[in-house]
Amino acid sequence: MRSWFLVFASLLAVALPAHAAFFSDDEARQKIVEVQQQVTQLQGQLQAKLDEELKQRLAVETRVGALESQLKSQGLVDLLNQIDRLNGEISKLKGQLEVMSHDVEVTQKRQRDLYTDLDGRLRKLESGPAASAASTPAAPPSPAPAPAAAVPPTAAAPTVPPVDAEAELKSYETAHNLFKTGKYKESADAFEKFLDTYPASKYVPSAQYWIGYAHFSRKDYKAAIASQQKLIKAYPDNHKVPDAMYNIANSQIQLADIDGARQTLRALIEKFPLSDAAPLAKKRLAVLESVKSKN
């Protein structure tokens, strides 16, 4: 628009001298003044329109910028709120896991003390008949039988050396005493040696259980699970199986395998509802279910 008026003014400047030849000097001057006034007026109008358009454009740009800033700020606020909520949930879960871990440690300590006492009593009961039999006086020797007819010699059957019951019990108690004094690695090694030396002992299931418990106490949870599963597979009906399953569940909790712990606890409660470990399993399962519902 401004360039158009410059062209128009140039044409007027060229045309006015020629046109002035038809007018007097006063009239020519008067016409020039009028044309200049018109040009000035048109330029003013044009400038006003340009200024108005510029103001409107600036206003629109200002509004767009404000809207963009508002959208960005609102999106950032929403994102920050989401992050705060997630951090709060994470903190809550960490607190719950810490409480559960502490609860597991306390329960395991109580369970360890109880089992140690019960194990000692069971050993006394189990060794009672052998001790009484040893204290019973031996019967008088019977008369020697008459010599039998000679028979052809045959291959002698392999003989199994008798087990020294006293040495067997002492070996078991040595490994168990190491556990009671907190020497878990030494205890596990001693129980392993016991199993190698006395594979047919009646204490084998208990020894296998204490191996798993020693691994758990050393925070080697995978080894604890493997040891207890070995006990469950070999002696599924033994009285140590419910305790072994409970120990597996607690190991799974420590490994953050919450779903696996729930399954183990449910199986324990279903298979051994009257065992001493069942009430503990119910309490532990209730805690795990409450964590699941809060999530």
Notable features of this structure?
Serine Threonine Protein Phosphatase 5, Tetratricopeptide repeat; mainly alpha; 295 residues; 0% strand
How would you portray this structure in words?
The protein is mainly α. Among the domains are: 2-83; 172-294, Serine Threonine Protein Phosphatase 5, Tetratricopeptide repeat (Alpha Horseshoe). The chain is built from 9 helices and no strands. It has helices at 2-20, 25-135, 165-180, 184-197, 204-217, 221-234, 241-254, 258-271, 277-294. Helix 5 (204-217) packs antiparallel against helix 6 and helix 8 (258-271) runs antiparallel to helix 9 (277-294). The longest helix is centred in the N-terminal third of the chain and has 111 residues, at 25-135. It is rod-shaped and about 155 Å long. The model is unreliable at 130-151 (pLDDT under 50).
